[in-house]
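Chapter summary example: a protein plus magnesium ion.
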Amino acid sequence: MSGNILVKAVHLKKYYPVRTSFLESILRGERIFVKAVDDVSFEIKRKEIFVIAGETGSGKTTTGKLLVGLEEPTSGEIYYNGEKISGIPIKKWKKHGLRKKIQMIFQDPYESLNPRQYVFDILAEPLIVNKVVSSREELYDRIMRKLEEVKLIPPEEFAFRYPHELSGGQRQRVVVARGMILEPEFVVADEPVSMLDASIRANVLDLLEEFRSKYGVTFLYITHDLATARYVGDRIAIMYLGKFVETGPVDEVIQNPQHPYTKALVSAIPVPDPEYARKKKRFELYGEIPTPINPPKGCRLHPRCPLAMDICSREEPPMVKVGPDHYASCWLLAKR
Amino acid sequence: MPRKEVLRIEKLKTHYYTLGGIVKAVDGVDLRVYKGELVALVGESGCGKSTLAFSIMGMVPPPGRIVSGKIYLSDINLVELSDEELRKIRWSKVSMVFQGAMNSLNPVMKVGDQIIEAMLYHDVISRPEEGRSTVKHLFELVGLDPNRIDSYPHELSGGMKQRVVIAMAMALNPDLIIADEPTTALDVTTQAKIMEVLKDVQKKTGVSILLITHDLPLVAEVSDRVYIMYAGKIVETGDVFTIFKSPRHPYTQGLIGAVPSIRGPKKKLVALPGEPPDLRFPPPGCRFHPRCSKAMDICGKKEPPRIEFGPDDFVSCWLFAKEGERK
Ligand SMILES: Nc1ncnc2c1ncn2[C@@H]1O[C@H](COP(=O)(O)OP(=O)(O)OP(=O)(O)O)[C@@H](O)[C@H]1O
Ligand SMILES: Nc1ncnc2c1ncn2[C@@H]1O[C@H](COP(=O)(O)OP(=O)(O)OP(=O)(O)O)[C@@H](O)[C@H]1O
Ligand SMILES: [Mg+2]
Ligand SMILES: [Mg+2]
């Protein structure tokens, strides 16, 4: 048995080939890849909310898709409940009972809901496809209960509306309801609130917490926003160009960042306190995040890092322990 | 010495006349910007921020139009100007960084040429060659390598494109820049840099900035004064310290209570109940009353008065009205 660990990723990689002209590929003499996820290992505990945070293009969504079977890893393994699930094609997930257990909630409620379906039908589809209800009454009851759980009350009033007849916040609740309708054990929530205004974000985040405490759901929460990460997450991984650069308990990583990238990220985040903001010293990197095509050799951050040393451009830094359950991969922290 | 007023808006109403009804997007707004200030206009999606900006630029898209009110740009009331007169003032006195502008740069034209074209159009220069050195200076001003003037948009990162857009807004040396969500699509580290660019440009040129955003923490970091907008109206204004340390309006309090911070003890986030109203059918009385935990009888009946605490320091809320007035 896998004990306390529900999801485990080992040396996970996902490379996408870049389409290039025939001539260019001959000139380069090799195929070019976007190294979206490049050797990432982690464990997610049962009932945990594990966060992956990072800037655009760092590989967060791709990691999430690998875990739910929407993408196949280029290499590496994924274990679920102790059983290896990487390598099982998505078509066979249903047979293995994985389809119901593992779900993903996507970031954009406008794109991920069919505009021509009633909320009821949006929620009914997974129940019917996965044959988890045996009667119309059961179908109806389950949908109404789920709508209530995501606070779309009274549920009868929301069930027969189209997505465009809902506000942004309500639509996002429908997206959450759909992700939860099969009562999954593990849910990847990809930026579930980034399209919402601050005043209603907290409500949707509270839903994740409620599903965790009520049904023991385990979450991977993907975000670029460390402030919301802090409110929902237990542990966090900071991702940069396809790699984890730092992992640890959320508060520890945010209050006491060790990797220069995490430091820069934390210090760039505005704080809603004008007095503190005017005093704070910023730790800045050079330039902007490059594309993960041909990422820099050695430490991927080195061209942007003001603290870079010789070795950083030559060798990849190891992950080192910097505190209880707190790890970072930086040559400054490694004993050489 | 009194501060020099760059922009003064009085009782502005801008509505959209749609088939489904009249959208009262800006509904009686007063707002002021002084020379060299960074003023933030904050509010949730759809509360009318961009519409207010378009009104100042004289570019309200149909079916919208300015219904009433005044917009003074250093003593000239823009609302009374003809299109031709407006055209002259636009960009040279007030310019705008549009929401999402960095993605609407012309993809087949060099970024420098796009700025030169704008300068030619406004007779700032008479020949394109004259423009190149000006544009190089502008690029330096916004922290871009001057050689980038011959780049195409796709060769630039998001942050660089946003700098181009800011350079463009500075091209005619305006008194005021309206920056509509200038950092929303950018990563936090890039966002921080772009805000620094704006502050830096301001320090060097003395330009005033009206920053439009829904990002409260950002406002806390960069602005001098803040206007809080809700459903087409300004509900509170004050200097940035007052707004964040002792907000008066329940909406402002609610917004601040709902915003997570990476600093300090982890407080419980309290979301505001409900959502902003449909601006075709705003609630009677105070537009915020259906979501307000402190709402009284009168709040659903009569629009709240404006209670002034000083110049550019007011709240529109019945809680602050004298006992006798609350009927
Ligand atoms: N199907 C695909 N084919 C080719 N490249 C891809 C594909 N999906 C993602 N990528 C690339 O992989 C990298 C990582 O993308 P991913 O969507 O995982 O990033 P992300 O961290 O979720 O970013 P964001 O914050 O913008 O959502 C990006 O450079 C992206 O362009
Ligand atoms: N061209 C238009 N026709 C009809 N209604 C419009 C038009 N443009 C905007 N509106 C409506 O006017 C209101 C205010 O819109 P506006 O774009 O000014 O809001 P905003 O505060 O800038 O929002 P956001 O933060 O999402 O940019 C909204 O209810 C919107 O639906
Ligand atoms: Mg993503
Ligand atoms: Mg807008």
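Key point: The mean pLDDT of chain B is 92.
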